[in-house]
Amino acid sequence: xxRIGVMTSGGDAPGMNAAVRAVARRAMSQGLEVYGIxxxxxxxxxxxxxxxxxxxxxxxxxxxxxxxxxxxxxxxxQVEGQLKGIEQLxxxxxxxxxxxxxxxxxxxxxxxxxxxxxxxxxxxTIDNDIPYTDFTIGFDTAVNTVVESIDKIRDTAASHxxxxxxxxxxxxxxxIALWAGVAGGADEIxxxxxxxxxxxxxxxxxALRARGKKHTIIVLAEGVMHADEFMTQLKxxxxxxxxxxxxxxxxxxxxxxxxxxxxxxxxxAYAVDLLLQGKGGIAIGTENNQLTYHPVTELxxxxxxxxxxxxxxxxxxxx
Length: 319
Ligand code: ADP
Description:
It is a single chain. By secondary structure, the chain is of the alpha/beta class. Helices cover 41% and strands 18% of the residues. The chain has helices spanning 16-29, 40-46, 79-91, 103-114, 139-160, 175-183, 198-210, 227-235, 258-276, 296-299, 309-317, and strands at residues 3-8, 33-37, 49-51, 96-101, 119-123, 163-168, 188-190, 216-221, 242-246, 282-287, 290-295. The strands form two sheets. It has a seven-stranded mixed beta sheet, sandwiched between helices. α2 (40-46) packs across α3 (79-91) and α6 runs parallel beside α11 (309-317). The radius of gyration is 21 Å and the shape is elongated. The termini are far apart. The structure holds adenosine-5'-diphosphate. Substrate binds at residues 125-127, 162, 169-171, 222, 243, 249-252.
């Protein structure tokens, strides 16, 4: 093992830069050469590849986004694209590749592994929807961003005695909604993993109002439905002076939290150590506060489950 490549792919997440830095610096300190690949799988196929120096990753640990850029490149689902990517890696004499990304990026890593090319996946996504890891890089920062926004919405909701439906990201997963909902003191958390009854929610809002709590915050995971649609359904049961807010891409940006920086640093360094031990075709995670890895071929046999105890806890705290 002499040369490794590193890239970020799919949806960007705060802490990706810290992960790139950790991979590059650990590898360089072990005498490896590191090549950065810009624009994810699109850049891989196009040969957008450059040799990294220690200074290339200076002053990025604190920055959101990704210095290696990211891209969507659906063509990588075709064998032709995958083989072209491997051709480029061979042309640059890159022995192994570290991919930092989410679910889609992991599928790309799986394909490379199936073709016999050594690849390691690091979970970089705000959604936290990757199996075999309690947390993904970027999740903690996104949750903190959402909580800050909920705090602000609470001020205006209270002043006007309104009901707010706050739509948060997460794709098909309810993790951001659950964590931010509990931390933000939401009255209701609506996630794809739990059924809900809109008539019951309307009843709860009415009961809260009758008890003197005139403003309500509902945190809605985007995987359930859009906030506007939810509000329209809710209004069939009463006006509640309801408003909807879609937090959108603000959740993907910002300086990574200390937790995300530490997680990215640990996982990035671990990826290099595993490669040096001859391991590959794996995805890295953190389970019960321990770094772990699993064959990427097994990753999709397992379905990610959010911590649904948060849902139950919130039911009793919101009353
Ligand atoms: P994320 O990694 O954040 O889930 P995407 O789903 O957009 O983001 O995936 C990122 C990239 O991974 C895609 O643009 C594509 O290049 C690659 N990819 C996604 N799905 C597959 C697949 N089934 N096979 C090969 N490559 C894939």
